[in-house]
Give the backbone structure.
Amino acid sequence: MAVLRRDLLLTLRRPAELMTTLFFFVIVVSLFPLGIGPQPELLREIAPGVLWVAALLASLLALPRLFAADHADGTLEQLALAPQPLSLSVFAKLVAHWLTTGLPLTLLAPLIALQFDLPASATGVLVVSLALGTPIFGAIGAVGAALTLGLRGGGVLTAVLVLPLYIPALIFGAGAVEATLGGLEASGHLSLLAALTVFTLAFAPWAAAAAVRISLD
Amino acid sequence: MLEVSALAAARGDRVLFAGLDFSVPAGGLLQVTGRNGTGKTTLLRVLARLVRPDAGEVRWNNTSVADLGDEFFAELCYLGHAPAIKDDLTARENLAFSAGIAGVAADAAAIDAALAEVGLTGREMLPGRVLSQGQRRRVALAQLYLGQRRLWLLDEPLAALDSEASAAFVERLGAHLHAGGVAVVSTHHEIVPPPPATRHALRLGAGQAPAKPGSDTDFPGGRAAGSQRNG
Amino acid sequence: MAIHWFKYASPASFYGLAGRLAPWFAAAAAVATLVGLYIGLVLAPTDFQQGDSYRIIYIHVPAAWIGMFTYLVMAGWAAAGVVFNTRLSGMMVQALAPTGAMFTFVALWTGAFWGRPTWGAYWVWDARLTSTLILFFLYIGYIALRASIDDPRRADRAGAVLTLVGVVNIPIIYFSVKWWNTLHQGASVKPGSSSMATVMLAGMLVMAFAAWMYTIAVSLVRVRAIIVEREQHSAWVGELLDARAPDDAPGTSGGVAGSKGEKAR
Amino acid sequence: MNWSSFSDFLAMGGYAFFVWMSYGVTALLVVAEVAWVVRQRRQSLARARIQRNIREWSSP
């Protein structure tokens, strides 16, 4: 699919943007021990929440990459006029976006988890939960990013629109890691998160496509 | 081919045009003129279904474009102000992806041929960021020469083009019309396609603008399009 | 300008209808508030567990209900706007949002003042309060989005998408917060638990009715202001102004019925 | 009637602060909203009147 290949190629040509997102993730996570203190038990306890919130914020920061450049240079108009559903093109963009944001964050997370002395079992669940949860951040975020295209204060506005909708993913994702830490089974959390991912990916591209059309009007 | 009835569009509080009726037959060119802010771009965007009209209807082949959906988009090539060129992609890649998005099958040879047609031979591998405004515009225009799209909606296609490139474009436009295509072009320069293409003129916002002597017939308020045969 | 009547007809006729209905809803709200307050504050007995602090629920619970319900009504109007492409829908969503946000805030505020004597803290991460807080964020998001879009029609459509996305997410948010709350063994005392006297329930229902009537009355008056604001260039607003004395009190006139309106809602 | 005196009513069984803060702020918000809506309505009419006057003056 042309859109997917194009977006991937564009990110590869300009890897700095991707790296900025990843460094943001690392820096935010590293701030917590500095602010709270280096007690290993305390850090282990807050690790699931901290890692998840940091991944969430990093995803939020990456959202403008989805549409803003394409909106500015007219590519978005061409996508809207293509003889295939716009929601499909949005979905392709989401896949490309996840491969260049969500996936690297997911892969980086176990490394960062070392800072918090997270046990291996919890780290495994963290990776799985982030792999399931980051697509939700991208998909819901796409709706917010599309609605705020071309508006003043777009970035902050996107955050205000999108953050409340991120809460269920955060609860199930961080909850899964926390359950593992507490010696419980994480499968309940993970299956709810997976259901949420499927549901979001089914509807969000459609809503984001509608939002893109509204912003082009 | 392309028919418009009772079309109206407003931007904010301002009505740009209302009660617009015209039709462009196969092989016809509609040239939209008018001063800045009279709604040329909005009209083209309404025709391309990017903007919902406030009233009225656009028909293509006697069917409302609202009912046509992707069939209409497959026949349409719209070029707006922004040329949709990525700085980080080469001219060749830019054109290939534009074709891919538009669902036009184009192999490497066809891409290079289209770039040659707009005079970019030898610059296929240059990234978008080093291309001049005129060269970016040419890459965008090269899309027109890929595939067989029958409706061209072009917003200021001659902007930033030198006279040579403009002449080449007008020639290509003539060939498109000759093959039964339709084009709606907004421009400040008069475009005279080679006969036997019919040229129609639509002047928007003529009510406020002073009429230029020797220009095409004015229709106050943009009520209807005149039709005149060239040559 | 002939085209204006095509879609503008509906707001023009609704303007008159809203003007005639609003005073009745306002009166119903005033009467119900007085009755509800009398039942809740004077007639109802003191709760044997919570003492008189429980009397906060006469505003807390109705405010939470109406805050939630108003969002659903907004989503209903938004859906109608998407399906029928009517101009009035977006205006109604816009008119309802501030009142919904206000009631949601009231629910949070009174929840805090009910929680302090009951739980010993102003804020407890109780499932209901947390969900209400998120609902409040959703209202703020809608209002912020509207405020930053200049073109009211784009704002209508963008707001509709946001409201619908929000309303689809509300059950998920409620469920997830509840799940989170039970896992963390949060506070479980609920305002207005099952062992409620009939008088108390009656007071709460009357207050909920009052809040509902108030919401309708205020949003009708607000939608009239929005209609006039947006249609100030149209001919019917001109006629409306001609028919009004320049300084008559707002809200008292029944409004000029949109004589050209075809669709009444 | 639950109360023996008016001061009893005001005291709210010792919870006066919490109860009256809840009711008071709610009443304040409702009054503020009503005032705001009335002002909004007045302004919309005033603005429309200005618009109409501009229209009438600018077109003979």
